[in-house]
Amino acid sequence: MDSSNTSNESKCPHHNGQDNGHEEKHTSSSGKCPVMHGGNTSAGSSVMDWWPNALNLDILHQHDTKTNPLGKKFNYREELKKLDIEALKKDMHALMIDSQEWWPADWGHYGGLMIRMSWHAAGSYRIADGRGGGGTGNQRFAPLNSWPDNVSLDKARRLLWPIKKKYGNKVSWADLIILAGTIAYENMGLKTFGFGFGREDIWHPEKDVYWGAEKEWLAPSDERYDDVDNPETMENPLAAVQMGLIYVNPEGVNGKPDPLKTAAQVRETFKRMAMNDEETVALTAGGHTVGKTHGNGDASKLGPDPEAAGVEEQGFGWKNPHKTGKGRYTVTSGLEGAWTTHPTQWDNGFFDMLFGHEWELRKSPAGAWQWEPVNIKEEDRPVDVEDFSIRHNPMMTDADMAMKIDPIYNEICQRFIKDPDYFSETFARAWFKLTHRDMGPKVRYYGPDVPEEDLIWQDPVPEGKKDYDVETVKAKISVSGLSVSEMVSTAWDSARTFRGSDMRGGANGARIRLAPQKDWEGNEPKRLAHVLSVLEPIAAEFGISVADTIVLAGNVGVEKAAKSAGIDITVPFAPGRGDSTDEMTDAESFDYLEPIADGYRNWMKKEYVVSPEELMLDRTQLLGLTAPEMTVLVGGMRVMGTNYGNTKYGVFTNNVGALTNDFFVNLTDMAYEWKPVGKNLYEIKDRKTGEVKWTATRMDLVFGSNSILRSYAEVYAQDDCKEKFVNDFVDAWVKVMNADRFDLK
Questions:
Q1: Interval 214-261: pLDDT, tens
Q2: CA 165/CA 162 separation, integer angstroms
Q3: Which residues pair with 332 in a beta bridge?
Q4: Each residue's pLDDT tens digit, 388-413
């Protein structure tokens, strides 16, 4: 209906832009809309939509305690101590074979569904930035809860609800979702490698994860590759080949079957998810040893996804109107069929099926490309999920066929065929890695099934000495001849590698003295080598770790700088860091932690499409810092002279080395004006004389240009906040230095 023909009584003044007071004179109160549209709905516009290029600080505050219903005092680690783990596992085993009428289990066993849920939660991890993964229970929220690749997983999570309800806060959704897959494998006969509890839930969608620039689900792969035929050209930090997929398209590259091309995408995708070729084959074969695909119907007839479905669906999505819409008529990927003869038991059936038959392309009932055997004995065909007297053809995806066609994958398959026990062990270890990769060091694991073995991908760090005279060591460092800048910069560089996304990096382990970190451009290798040559003998003299000594030196530098500013302060310090060795360090995976920019030290390796200030936000979010903490740290780092290469950009002080609030005082001083003199470079001139007083980068001036950051800068520029500035700097500094000290949390 043409809206111009509607009466004023049916209009909402918040939509048509008319003045509210004027509208009130002409409409009845019953016809007015009582709420501000957009203020409380997902479809509403943000106030910042008017300025799409403005720096968005939301990612730094996305997990504010206000969103957490459990409150500030809730301690998941303490709750886990109350959990009856054996009872929970017993209930989980019972769930696997307790088929519910509202969503019946295939062959009476939920194993395949639960494994897919766990896999798709953990499998969203990518090593480039450590984001994704199953460590936060993020599959409960958009976009993951509504991804095309996650169809029907809403049902899997709802099947877990009675167990979650029973055990309450003693087990997180994140742990429960991952545990479900592990228990499923155990229930079907696999000897698993272990399991660690300890994943804490988030309570609203993650805003910091970049899933791709596409504006539609399952857009062609070409959109995230420079050259789709060269998988290495996929845009970083992405790993999945299309928006809405976890790994690769099961029908082939852009839905066109070609196992060799698919093999190349599989290799790159799994590499970006931290898996080597053997782990990739084991996971592919082991994942497809059990369960089935679902495509017995028309996928286009499915209802909207969970985020788009009506309230009457109560969080469910993809309603299927075809016959019963469940059981044998379930539609998820669109492919249809099981991979093995016995899809509810762990065996070598995947290899028997793949290598025991010739395969040809066919279409599933839903119209998806899949591979089916040319000839197969009746007894080798899997039975129907509901009627065991009926048998169907098995099927393989294009990625499965890649295991046979690609020569490297084929060779690995042959080893697994000859030694089923080796396959089972390799898969169990790979599954453990898949489901624990984003948890960080083993100290974060909890429970009786945590393996004793230290695995290199866990970034092991030996325990360090804790009982020593900290003040004596600090006194030795203080007279070592190292400058404030050298001590603070080295400690910062050691700690800034921490990623809260997957709990990797940080100062513990002192890997800054090992390859590859000691040679990273951003660590200024020459300066670093000099500082280490001074600190390592001090560490040896006192029998403490170099890791502790580096952090202590940074603290000494901060204390000296504060004293120079007229404030005596002791920076809190927790001893106990250890020193890792080359043998404990997966150098290749640590390459991904190399900084490409650091706004705190006013450095960029090169120019990027992303703005310098956005890169600074990304680093800040990974460090787990808030916008105020970022602000105070940058201001303090500048005046202490910690810029990369000793540049003067943003050093708005005549007293370099003193922890003053000069950065903020001079940034907000209207005696100056700011002029661009090159890309990312500015001069700050005296308005009266025209004299160039300071130079700066965008990473400096954003604290005066962005309205939110300026509000923080103005606080620290105030005459009554000099001491607050130092105290806040120290608090934020300690937070970074201890970011990876999980033993303290």
A1: 999 999 999 899 999 999 999 999 999 999 999 999 999 999 999 999
A2: 5
A3: none
A4: 999 999 999 999 999 999 999 999 99
At position 424, the amino acid (one-letter code) is: S
Identity of residue 139: Q
Distance of CA 158 to the CA centre of its chain: 24
* pLDDT of residue 693 exceeding 90: yes
C-alpha span between 187 and 42 (Å, rounded): 41
CA 56 to chain centre: 19
Is residue 473 within 8 Å of residue 542, measured between CB atoms?
yes
- Tokens (6 digits) for 184: 């499923």
Q: In sequence order, what are the residues at sequence separation of 6 or more whose Cβ sits closer than 8 angstroms to the Cβ of residue 319?
A: 302, 303, 309, 313, 325
Q: 335, 398 in Cβ contact below 8 A?
A: no
Q: How far is CA 664 from CA 300, 522, 631, 634, 682, in A?
A: 58, 26, 10, 10, 17
Name the percent of the chain in helix, strand, coil, to the closest 5: 45, 5, 45
Instruction: Please tell me the distance from the alpha carbon of residue 130 to that of residue 503, in angstroms, as a whole number.
Output: 8
The continuous run of DSSP H or E covering 678 comes out as strand 672-678
Half-sphere exposure of 589 toward its Cβ, with a 13 Å CA cutoff? 21
DSSP for 357-384 reads S-EEEEE-TTS-EEEEESS--GGGSPBP
Distance in angstroms between the alpha carbons of the first and the last residue of the chain? 60
> Exposed, middle or buried: residue 575 (CB in 10 Å: 0-12, 13-18, 19+)?
middle
pLDDT at 35: 55
Residues labelled catalytic: 120
Mean pLDDT to the nearest integer, 643-662: 98
Q: Is 313 exposed, middle or buried (0-12, 13-18, 19+ CB in 10 A)?
A: middle
Mean pLDDT (the chain, rounded):
93
CA atoms of 585 and 587, how far apart (whole Å): 6
Q: 714 vs 116, 277, 638, 706, 725, CA distance in Å?
A: 51, 54, 16, 12, 11
User: Which one, of 341, 338, 357, lies nearest residue 395 by Cα?
Assistant: 338
Query: Alpha carbon of 473 to those of 213, 363, 477, 509, 735: distances in Å?
Result: 51, 72, 6, 19, 21
Alpha-carbon separation of residue 79 from 201, 463, 744 (angstroms):
13, 25, 17
- Residue for token digits 């002409």? 26
Cα–Cα distance measured from residue 459 to residue 441, given in angstroms and rounded to the nearest whole number: 6
619/562 Cα distance (integer angstroms): 25
Report the SS3 class of residue 93: helix
User: Sign (positive/negative) of CA torsion 62, 68, 73, 75?
Assistant: negative
* Residues of the chain above pLDDT 90, percent: 90
Contact in structure between 259 and 405 (CB atoms under 8 Å): yes
Q: Which residues contact 364 (CB under 8 A, 6 or more apart)?
A: 293, 295, 296, 334, 335, 336, 337, 370, 395
Please compute the mean of the pLDDT values over residues 338-350 and round it to a whole number: 98
Q: What CA dihedral angle connects 684, 567, 726 and 468, to 10 degrees?
A: 130
Give the type of residue at 222: D
Q: 35: number of CA atoms within 13 Å, CB side?
A: 6
**Single-letter amino acid, residue 293:** T
**Omega cis (within 30) before 394:** no
Are the C-beta atoms of residues 477 and 585 closer than 8 Å to each other? no
Residue listed under structure tokens 């696997």: 96
Give yes or no for residue 745 having a pLDDT over 90. no
* pLDDT exceeds 70 at position 470: yes
Query: What's the CA gap between 267 and 577, in Å, rounded?
Result: 37
Compute the distance between CA of residue 504 and CA of residue 522 in angstroms, rounded to an integer. 18
Closest CA to 394 of 340, 467, 472: 340
Q: Which residues contact 408 (CB under 8 A, 6 or more apart)?
A: 277
The per-residue DSSP string of 456-475 comes to GGG---PPPP--S-HHHHHH
